[in-house]
Prior knowledge:
With 390 residues, the protein is an alpha+beta fold. 47% of the residues lie in helices and 13% in strands. The chain contains 15 helices and 11 strands. The chain has helices at residues 31-37, 68-82, 84-98, 105-112, 132-136, 149-158, 169-189, 192-195, 197-219, 228-238, 258-269, 274-281, 305-308, 344-374, 381-389, and strands at 16-17, 21-22, 49-51, 54-56, 101-103, 138-142, 145-148, 247-255, 293-298, 322-324, 327-337. A 4-stranded antiparallel β-sheet has the order 9-8-11-10. A 3-stranded antiparallel β-sheet has the order 5-6-7. The chain has a two-stranded antiparallel sheet with strand order 1-2. α10 crosses α14 (344-374). The longest helix has 31 residues, at 344-374. The protein is extended. The model has no long low-confidence stretch (mean pLDDT 91).
Amino acid sequence: DDATSSINGGDMGDFYGRTSGFEKTGTPLIGEFVDALFKLKDGEISDVVKSTYGFHIIKRDSSRPYIYEKDLDDIKKIYKTQFYEIDKAKFLDSVSAKLGFVIESATLKDLLSNFDTTKTSLDTTWANNISDDLKKKTLFSYRKMTSTVGDFITKIKTTPKYRSTANTYEGFKKVIKATVEPLVIDDATKNLEKDFDEFASLVKEFHYGMLLFKVEAQQVWDKLKFDSVAAKIYWDSTKTRYITNVMYDITEILVLSDSTANEIYEKAKKGANFETLASENTVRTGYREKKGNFGSLDSKRNKFVNVLIKEKIEKGLITKPQKFENGFTIIKINKIEEPRQKTFEEAISEFAPAFQEIQQKNLMTKWLNNVRSNHPVSYDKNAIEKLLVK
């Protein structure tokens, strides 16, 4: 009777794992079904299994070994999304209690009795009914710190993220815990390095790593500036590598129909001024004013390359109408600029990364050589040779 699987003769169509549900969708099955399924061996059929959906008879068709790494990753994801925050809250509650965190239940009850629980602290008259005597009472304490009802009200009024707090026990408790938890975490972790050698080692490694990073930044990266004189010397020794592509100075006419394009093409072939035709007919935005002229374009980077390569490219060429973008294009080659060696300014973007890398390596080498000279390392060659023999 199952609407999903009946069309396939009961086949549920996918492998199922306890951790991640169906492999393709991640959908879980009800607990009674899963328990019965995993008691079966391949090819076995279950007894009648009752669940809230009805009665099931299950055949376990086949199975395959699970992949440990994938299963572990799935468990981590599920725990993080479904259970982590719950366990974290329980853990912090237990630590808070051990470290002396106390909510004065009677005061909190009195405070709540003065509020309309259907409203939030966004209401401008939110705390008008709280008496001065109640404001002086301690609402919660943590070690030597105490917070009165008045302190609590001020915190909600002055902290943007608390301005919409619900006037309920859970709403108020959430703000109280958010106030105390950072203090609890600080107190609970301040002796971690003394209590756990592995953590102390990790912190020490992190500290030295940050120190090394800072020193390297000071000695290398902060000094790494683009020296135009040195760059010019580098360019002089490598400039033959940097050559321009062929450049085309073109004028284009773009129209929406092939018949219009053919008419314009015929006029151009018979000697009509191409720029005039472009200023009267092109529909490309902003190009009537420019008489269709694009100026010089890189032959390997402009969008008209695929149009031009179908023709024998030469100065004065007018291409036949071709389907292009949202219409039909006709292109005239006004000028062809042959490849040439790039100038220093033109080539900077190409050689700058390699030049900067050389500069960085030089600074790094200089720094490390200075470290080695100040902190020489000696090697016991005899001990090394003995190790190599073994």
